[in-house]
Amino acid sequence: MKLFALLLPLLLSLDTSTAFSTTSTKPKIPLKGITASQFRHPLDLSLTNVIQNAPFHQLAEQAIRSSFSLIEQGVRLDLLSSAVKVSPNQLPELHEAMQVASQLLDMPTVPELYVQSSSQANAYTLALQSKHTLPIVVVTSTLVERCTNEEIQAILGHELGHIQCSHSLYLTLGGLLSTPLRGLPIVGSQTEQLLQRWRLAAEYSCDRAAMLVAQDVDVVAGAMLKLFAGTDRVTNIKACMEQANEYEKLLRDVNPMVRMSVRMQQRTHPLPVRRVVELEKWAESEEYRKLLSGR
């Protein structure tokens, strides 16, 4: 839809493809008092702190929130007219999944959830929180049809991560504050590369939020596998890790010009194999274990 195309960078999406089944009975640990800074990727955290401490931060934030409230109104009207709003009486399994995911991340509010008809398996978020309206999360019909309950809940956790981290706000502020630098020689290209790395780091942060909701690396990695392959028949996580290792080895061994061209490609999301590797590393980290233990 044309309206959605106007929302970038407001719409922060997790592309995924993955038969709706019952939710796991494995108990999960509510993360009371958790803050975004506790699970942000290091680069996401450091650059967000820079923006928060920048002069005129509060003034710029108010201006952005005021401007984007009009977009939010348009999106909500469009969704109410053309999508299905999830509620206790409409797709109650999805409603419960969102409620539980929000509770696990100790969200102050539970976003509105919509299901939109699409041949693409996708989820996205209008992540700029307004004081007067609820955040919006949208999942597509294809995603719902391909995913298990646990996988959908993990995907919702990813989208909640965008909301918890206020990525739309801070990435927009970062882009605005860096505008004067982008026209300068050398500095301009370095600034663009840094912003690109920040966008990718924001996705890593939200993969961690998905992990905190699922509390099972196989669930999140399984959803990612279905994303990469575009089918729910791909389930071997170990084989995917082997593929990731093969990629890293080849990247080290290729001609430096080829390696540079790969690294300079503009992307809205990290490379799929890198996301799986980063997720596995963080799932085994002391940082993750401390969060689950309440420290």
From TrEMBL:
It comes from the Eukaryota. GO terms for molecular function: endopeptidase activity; metal ion binding; metallopeptidase activity. Residues 90-282 form the Peptidase M48 domain. Keywords: Hydrolase, Metal-binding, Metalloprotease, Protease, Signal, Zinc. Its cofactor is Zn(2+). Residues 1-19 form the signal peptide. GO terms for biological process: proteolysis. The keyword rRNA-binding does not apply. Belongs to the peptidase M48 family. This is Peptidase M48 domain-containing protein. The lineage of its organism: Eukaryota, Sar, Stramenopiles, Ochrophyta, Bacillariophyta.
